[in-house]
């Protein structure tokens, strides 16, 4: 009895650890939103330039927030809408036409970039892109355009894929600047900066680009998904979470920064679960910087290009690109393959098992295109994966069938040895050896399948195709939890249920989570309950514990688990039946109810 109590306590503690660990590493998925609190309104430092590569050695240039009445250039493309402020020439107003904050048709579009200082309709933190020139060789910073500079553009200018816009500024002292912005049909901007020197002496300066983000975006920050800075430098990928950015070492003249020089190709920016903003320098020497300004809580991603000399009467031009939009795999891959942005698909977080997640993602993308419905594509992908790992599953189920055949002999052995555990273990090992049964044979195939199923989980979690994608009936958003709730009898009772961000939401079980628990319960009943009461209790609770754990997850993930459990149930039943160990499903169910009735002191016939 003392041993059983110890096992019960240990099993209970382990279950709690699993529950807490799962909730920590895989927190509930919430519908994507862009609502964050306002923060201090300052503009990040404009880099200064040395004679080689741009560095930030000057003090910060502070600027007033962008006035609401500052002149602007409208942006209108098939996928984007917004504007560019002529004050500072910054891109600080951008929304995604294909994506809304919620399923409500009147809900606002997902807003990617927001201006500093101006009131934003959905309360987004300031998030914007700056371009400019840093002074070098003793050039007066006042001779260059800054964050307060008001550029000039032709009246009625609208940035579209067919109509680039050009902004100009003359410093009145012999330097004339122009900035031409163009955009394609999707999310790629090209920024061409030019400076004409009409003075009688050469001038030196260096072009730069900055993505500035005030505060951390409100989102479900999940361990398995990277959110923060991401950059590629000469083929090497580096990811830095927001929490790690705030812990960067201080660099002289920079603040907290991580500076990395490249000689070939690269890109740098900030990535969220579904959205991304990335600077792409021209091929050649460049410096990328991840930076944090603690006083104003600003996160920065910068590209600094080498200093150039502009001779008297000459004009120097430099091109950079900017990706600002949704992380649509097909679009990003086209930029990698056709626009030459090296390894751009790696801006999507593929995880540790990238060699598995990448082909799985491609297959899910193909199935979605072929079937036309993401829910059925998830089920089809699960079927294909289960078919591929079927040989491993078959070995596991055959091993389970052989173990079941030996169950009567093991019961006899248990009675013969009484309570002597040592003799019983020795007898069981001899029984295995005599019948050529390897008890570990069923474990190894399962272990080999773990990275496969974890990769499938990752693919379903990160793919943007689930965002507001419907399946059947009541499931209108596979990226959000099941909207139905047992608390109001799935909509039959006229009262609201807890919101997804409420601590009581886990009790608001929908149809899919309940089906998940039932599928796990049926799968469990293919085998008799363990003879040990403690183990039997833990196994009895596991389906319902997982039902609550996964109930607040995205519907697409819950659908995957239901499909996986159902296919596993069918495979196990058929294979064990073929090897003479047909599961007594209903007998095991009856036995479990008898055991519960006996535990309560009742009787059963």
From TrEMBL:
Domain of life (superkingdom): Bacteria
Localization in the cell: Cell inner membrane; Cell membrane
Recorded coiled-coil stretches: none
Gene Ontology molecular function terms on file: membrane insertase activity
Gene Ontology, cellular component aspect: plasma membrane
Residue ranges of the TM segments: 6-26, 374-393, 437-457, 503-522, 543-563
Membrane topology: Multi-pass membrane protein
Alphabetical list of Pfam families matching this protein: 60KD_IMP, YidC_periplas
Alphabetical UniProt keywords: Cell membrane, Chaperone, Membrane, Protein transport, Transmembrane, Transmembrane helix, Transport
Residue stretches making up the Membrane insertase YidC N-terminal domain: 72-363
Residues of the Membrane insertase YidC/Oxa/ALB C-terminal domain: 374-576
Gene3D superfamilies: 2.70.98.90
Signal peptide coordinates: none
Subunit structure: Interacts with the Sec translocase complex via SecD. Specifically interacts with transmembrane segments of nascent integral membrane proteins during membrane integration.
Summary of the function given for this chain in its UniProt record: Required for the insertion and/or proper folding and/or complex formation of integral membrane proteins into the membrane. Involved in integration of membrane proteins that insert both dependently and independently of the Sec translocase complex, as well as at least some lipoproteins. Aids folding of multispanning membrane proteins.
Protein family per UniProt: Belongs to the OXA1/ALB3/YidC family. Type 1 subfamily.
HAMAP family per record: YidC_type1 (MF_01810)
Name listed for the protein in its UniProt record: Membrane protein insertase YidC
Taxonomic lineage of the native organism: Bacteria, Pseudomonadati, Pseudomonadota, Alphaproteobacteria, Rhodobacterales
